[in-house]
Amino acid sequence: MLCVGLVGVTGHVVEVEADLAAGLPAVVISGLPDTALHEARDRVRAAVVNSGQKWPNRRITINLLPATLPKHGSAFDLAIAAALLGGAGELPLLPLERVVVLGELGLDGTVRPVRGILPMVAAAARAGLDRVVVPVDNAAEAAVIPGVRVRAVDTLHRLVSFVREGTPLLEPPVPGPPAVAAGPDLADVAGQGLGRRALEVTAAGGHHLALLGPPGAGKTMLAERLPSVLPELDDDAALEVTALHSIAGLLPPDGRLLRRPPFQAPHHTATVASLVGGGSGLARPGAVSLAHRGVLFLDEAAEFAKGALEALRQPLESGRVHLARSRGGTEYPARVQLVLAANPCPCAKPAGDAFCECTPLARRRYLGRLSGPLLDRIDVQITVNPVRAAELMEVDAAAESSAVVAARVAAARAAAAERWATVGRRLNADIPGPLLRQLPWRLPARDTAELRGRLDSGSLSARGFDRIIRLAWTVADLDGRSRPGREDVREAIGLRTGDRV
C-alpha cells in the first residue's frame, strides 16, 4: 500500500507493509512513527472490527518505508488497515496497486479528514502516481491538483466494497462559483496622502513597511488595506500558500486554491513559536509562514517581546524558516511583506508629540524595543500624522479606491518582472544589492550624490543604501519611467528615513 508522509511542506511517498506471523497476538509499527501513529494500532483494530471485518489474531508487524523518514500524524490509518487486511488474505489488493490511500480512521470505521492533503497529493503527482483515495471531506481540496484522479471514501466499509465487489467510490464535489468577499477598501482612508503613497510603493515593489504615529491616525487602516492592492497569486504561489494553510488546518470547506495574498495579524502577546513556528515532534508553521506571499502585520509592534521580533530577522532576509528539533529539522517558506505599526511613546496621546507626557528616556526605551538591525530591514519607514477635522469630515468623491491603486501596482510589477526576467527575479525588493551597483543597472553619480553622502557620514548603512536604490526603482516603475532619476532617489530617501529632502 502507498501513502504519503509530510516533512514540513514536502511530501514523501511511503510504502506500507504488513507481515502476519504466528505468535502471541500483537501489533508492532516500525519506521520512525510518532505517538499519533503508534496509537493507530488501536484505531485500526476497532475500525476493522466495527466495519464487519475479521481481525487476525496473529503477530502483526506494520513497516513504513523508507524507515529513515520520520512519520507523523494519522493519515496512514486507512493504508495500514488495507495492508493489514490484504496480508491476512481478507482483501485482494490488486485494485489498489499504485494507488495512494490517505485518511484517518474513527473507531466506528468512518474515514475522517486529515491536514495537509494538498501537499500530499502534490507529492504523489510528482512521484508519477495519478490515482489517490482520500477522505470525502478532503476530496475538493485534493481535486485541485491537476492530472490526478481523485476518489473519496467516507467509511472503511466503502473501500472494502470497492476492492472486493467493484462498488464505485465517491466522486469529488463539483466546485461552484468562487465566493467574492468584499475586503477593506483604500477609499475608506481619510487623508493620509503620504501613507497612501507609502502603501502603494510597498505593494508595487514587495517592500517592508513601518508606520509610526499616534493612535487613531490610520496606521491599522492602511495596513489592513495592503492586501487589497496586491495582485492575485499565480498558480505556483497559490499552491504554496494553500499547502501551508492545509497543513495548519485553515483551509475553507470548498478546498479551493487561495488566490488572495494572505494577511496575518498576530496579537502582541504572541510567542516566538507562534510567530516563526514550533511545537513538539513535527514543528507547525507559524504566522510568518501562514503569511507567505502575503502580509504579516504586527500592530503595536513595540509591545511584542523582543525575542519574538528578533526571530523575524533571518526569515526576512532568506524568505524561509528552518526549525531544528531533536527528531529532525523542518523548513517552511516565509516570503512576506512585513508591516509594523507602533505608537511613538507609552502614553500615546492622540493629539501627537505636543501633548506627550513621557520623558525623553521613556520614549527612547519604548521605541528601542524595535532594534536597529530589525528596522534596517524595513524599506519604508514613515510617520503617520493625526488626521485633521477637514480631512475627516470631507466627502472626497475623488479618493482612489483599492481597485484603482491595484491597477497601477500591477503595471509597476509587470514592468519590474520584464526588466529582471534575465536574472530570474520579479520584484524590486528581491534584487541583490551588488547587481544594482553594476552596469547597466548602476545609477549615475549625479542622481545618487545625496545617498552616497549619507552612507559616507554613517547615517545610512550599506543595507539601507541598497534598499533605497530598490525603492527608487519602484517609484520609477509606478510613475512609468524606465530608470530612476534624481527625484526618484530623493523620494526613496524620504520614504526610508522620513526626511524631507
Automatic annotation (TrEMBL):
Database matches in Gene3D superfamilies: 3.30.230.10, P-loop containing nucleotide triphosphate hydrolases
SUPFAM superfamilies: P-loop containing nucleoside triphosphate hydrolases, Ribosomal protein S5 domain 2-like
Family membership noted in the UniProt record: Belongs to the Mg-chelatase subunits D/I family. ComM subfamily.
Molecular function GO labels: ATP binding
AAA+ ATPase domain location: 205-388
Protein name according to UniProt: Magnesium chelatase family protein
Cited Pfam families: ChlI, Mg_chelatase, Mg_chelatase_C
Domain of life: Bacteria
